[in-house]
Batch of 4 targets.
Target 1
Amino acid sequence: EGGEAGPDVYKGETIQRLNKLDDGRLILAHGKNAHHMLQVTGLENVRRFSGSFDLTADQAKQAAVRISEQKEKSDETAPIRITLAKNAPTVDGKLDDWDWKAASAIGHKEGSPRAEVALKTVGKNLFAAFKVFKKGAYVNTAKDDATQLFLTGDAVELRFRAEPAADPKDKKPIMGDCRVIIGKKEGKTVAVLYRAVVPNAKNPVVFRNPAGKEVPFDSVEVIKDAVVAIVDTADGYLVEASLPIDFLGGNLWSARSIPGDAGIIVADSTGRRVARICRFNKDTQVVSDIPTEAALQPELWGTFLVGKE
């Protein structure tokens, strides 16, 4: 395991230790299913050097651009934090009791449409806050059928692969794969849980198009104990929600890593879908095919990382 004999086997392994023997030799020891010892040589030839070079203003500018690009790329793939908090926020849509430093960007950091999301957990509840930037106020024309919430206008969403032992790159939906859509139905706030695989499911829902493509969910149901607030702003709207974490398999412990994603569905003033934007999944261009928009696509997700405040 780990590649060819030599330094490459060091990658991904544990129990790493650097030892200096009595005779001065440096030994790098590490292992997992096997134990490796490698001698580090050549350090005795390392010497300090001195000198100078000319750094032009243009070179400094290019370096600054590259550093900025690297940071932006790193930020785009960084995990979304779920903070273990002591105090629960008040779900009122104001977001004045949130530390926005822990938020993650969804889409470009400037302009619209785009969003920012922050998550925290207190007790047996997951709290989510979204700042959505778009042209116009929140619009969703959903009526009786809550299963269609992601097809009828603006909404925010969270996706999770809640089974800890699951392969995060497995394309096939498994038990624990789910999606939470938060929005409004008939003018009232609601959170809907879509679960891909549920044993002995009684009311599965299938999303299909005229060409015969189908995406099934064993369970689609309104989260009864969810508390949601949606407030319009001058440049979009705010969403705040409290969700019981039963669907995530119980308590969220520090350092737990959960495959998943967060995103927004953007509508125009009539409620027609015009964009889907996720933090990790970039394959979201389609806004006119129901099964494509319903599909979970776990192989394109990133990671939620649970940590202390």
Note: The first helix runs from residue 57 to 77.
Target 2
Amino acid sequence: MARILVVEDNEMNLDVLKRRLERIGHVVLHAEDGLRGIEMATAEGPDLVLMDISLPGIDGWEATRRLLADPRTTDLPIIALTAHAMAEDRAKSLAAGCIDYDTKPVDFARLVAKINRVLAVEIRA
């Protein structure tokens, strides 16, 4: 399946996502903050990033902007995954360049549907 980079600073959220994504066949990479997320995305070349927004150091919006500004990662699909659930948070995530947005607590079936939709588009491209 896909290599998914989860940029998440909360151990419990990471553990749940990692186990569930691996159970359905994905390889999960992890970064605990925005700067490390940028480094890992550049070095590891994941198929998709699940980007938390509230991160130590630079936030997920800034990390997304930096990734998409880099020619090595400009086409990397990023889904914002955040507890920020207001309409303006969704709009800000999409404006930063995220291809989609989902909220915490995670509805795993909904998230997997979004992941599958994004990966299907990437595979066809």
Note: The mean pLDDT is 93.
Target 3
Amino acid sequence: MMGTKPQGEAPQSKRGPSAPLIEIARNGLVESSHLASFALADSEGKLIASFGDPELQTFMRSSAKPFQAMPTLAAGAADAAGFTSEEVALMCASHAGTDRHAALAAGMLLKIGCSAEDLRCGVHLPYDPSTAEALIRKGLEPDALRNNCSGKHSGMLALAVHLDAPLDTYLEPDHPVQKMILENFSQMSGLPLDAIRVGTDGCSAPNFAIPLRNAAMAYARLMAPENLPAAAAEAARRVVAAMTGHPVLVSGEGRFDTRLMRASAGRLLSKGGAEGYQCVGIPADSLGYKHAALGLALKILDGDLGHRAGSVATLEVLGRIGALRREERTDLARFDARVLLNLAGLHTGEIRITPGFVLDSLDHGIHTA
């Protein structure tokens, strides 16, 4: 197993508190701002750069999905079910609930002898507006297949079937599936089990709160898994290949994770989570100069319910360290710092990085603009 620095209890904050990073200005006056913290770390937990409090302990929400999918692959359950790379991508997804997404989830369940009734993730309208409108026009109610987490839950059920474990309690923390997921998460984040705070996610599955630095380390290990045990390393490689190879399945057309992975031609791995959480996996030597694989974990403190601040902050950090090329960032302009228009098309202000923002680089080998 890789070195697990930092070890022991989740570390207390050693740096400054979260600070304003994104602001919205109108006619030159700051109208509102978003507090943020982030950590950029390598696979050994070395903090490469940061802003605010890199030791902030907070729930990863859906950014944890790649690690929740890994045990289904490592245990052989995905292969036993005959899951394709597209279906592996859906296991890691917060998908938009389109017909394609729902059909893939239904196919996964069929392969393991289950159905939508076995899913315990709940029901909501599809995130994709046109799909939601089509259902409403037809007078149809969405089912659990449209839930953005249906792929994750289908993967958990596949592991339960493979283990011959109960299906109706697959979300309970003491269920074999959830124990395997937590153990894998401990290995990837470099924290012992008792340092990981477990809560209940929006889809009713267990979720994990860890410091931002450990989350960044987990994403670095996902991108550079060679020092993990063989089964976990292969699972990590398959997760990365599936997510970056099928970005529309991980999120959806026009959504940030999909667009970032497409713009970078699959070089970067992106996975957001609720309440303003965002992670990016950066492979080795992708910064334009020699450097190890890195992970970025970012938290917008107010939850970023308008989905406007997290993408601006993420693109700024990736740009400053050289992980995102100029033409790639241009392709992502709708998610970046930009002017704001009202309904009449008039320029009313801008959303921007707080002037004077400095990336706190702790590694003199990293190049910052």
Note: The first helix runs from residue 65 to 74.
Target 4
Amino acid sequence: MMRKPEAFIIVGLIVAVAGCQRLDYGSRPAPAPLQPTPVAPVASGQLQPLETTPNGTPLTGQPLDGTVATAPLDGQETVTGTVPTGNGAPVGRTDLLGGWTVASGGDTCKLFMTLTTWSGGYRANTRGCSNATLAGVSAWDLQGNQIKLKDGGGADVAALVSNAPEQFNGTTNGGAPISVFR
């Protein structure tokens, strides 16, 4: 006499084989090939001069002497500013994006800056900070020659300027030295 588990296995195999016999792919014709999607020709033309924003608005009155003039990302006014670096080259908002190391008051942790708008500037966050001031950084902004780090309500936490490429030093609102570097 056959046991129940063996009977179920044999019945399952018979059903599987029978199911395979019912699928007859050989008698069906292959589907017709897809037609290629029409592609419009690539447009060519002159690029806009550097004195305009991407939407064509002239940047009148903006000096072309190394200052950074950027188009607004959130419908607000155009921001113009420079941050001096160790080699004299200006730094723009996009140069500040990404991961940084921040150190202040014996604490060293990670700072991440994006261009997502946030209270008083753009979104920032810190990871691994035990210092309450550093842990509270939620935003950043480029104002003239300074980088301002801000808390969740948009209040200034620290102000920094560049001493060397990819290194910014300054003080917190409490007077403690702070350094941001890669």
Note: The CA atoms of residues 82 and 145 lie 5 Å apart.
